Amino acid sequence: MSNNITDRPELPKVDTQSTLSALDLRSGAGWLASADAAVRDRFLSEIGEGGLCALPFLFEFWALPHQVPPEGDWRSWVIMGGRGAGKTRAGAEWVRHVVEGPKPLDKGVASRVALLGETFDQVRDVMIFGVSGILQCSPPDHLTWIRRTRLDGDDWAGLEVPLAEESESYIVQVWANGAQVREQIVTEPIWLYTAAMKTTDGVSGTYDVQVAQVSASYGPGLFAHLTVR
After folding, report:
1. pLDDT of the chain, 229 residues: tens digit per residue
2. pTM over 0.70
3. Do 61 and 114 share a domain, yes or no?
């Protein structure tokens, strides 16, 4: 037998392209990862700057099949999986969906949610502030808050405290680099700071948001403050 490398049979060529297709995957990210480079480049170029900013927070694009809520009428949803299966992220995204609604300006079906964990620290450090927690998977520019009331706030049975005002109104202010760049009146406890607004305001990076509830009798209340990074 010859040891000359030229006498060895040629190795078969290996197709390094993924065999997965859009029909094999429920997630858009899986389809995009298996597509040709030209398809990926076209997709990323056509969705625009706003789409690129929103894409990390569109969980239906990234979710694996076991992270998608079951269809139909159900009361309990159990995800059985090991470490890294995406259980915390799936739960956080479902909570975000029912609170914020499926679209940026939609109302959710719940305003208060009970988070249950083995300990208080686990709820806080994993489910809320963790790398897959609610705050981490929520868009920084989609702001919501809970209104206050001056009357009957200690005894109420609805999803929200009684308004006790003729109408619901809030002042939203945006501050950047020590200067106020925007003030807006909204009639619901939700506000979306869009990419177009930020461009108009010259805002990039860290900015501050202040929100005050407005009373027809007393005017604006105390401002709540949030720094968005």
Report:
1. 444 434 444 433 433 343 334 344 467 888 888 888 999 899 888 887 667 777 888 888 888 888 888 888 888 999 998 998 999 999 999 998 888 777 666 677 877 788 999 998 999 899 988 889 988 888 777 787 877 766 555 555 555 555 666 778 899 999 999 999 999 999 888 888 887 788 899 998 899 999 998 888 788 888 999 898 7
2. no
3. yes
Please indicate, yes or no, if residue 107 is contained in any of the structural domains: yes
Q: 117 with 147, same domain?
A: no
Distance of alpha carbon 229 from alpha carbon 216, whole angstroms:
33
- Token pair listed for 209: 């948001």
Per the structure, the count of domains in the chain is 2
CB 112 within 8 A of CB 159: yes
Task: Tell me: do 103 and 174 sit in the same domain.
Answer: no
- The range of the structural domain enclosing residue 93 comes to 47-68+78-137
189 shares its domain with 130: no
Q: Which residues contact 169 (CB under 8 A, 6 or more apart)?
A: 185, 186, 187, 213, 214
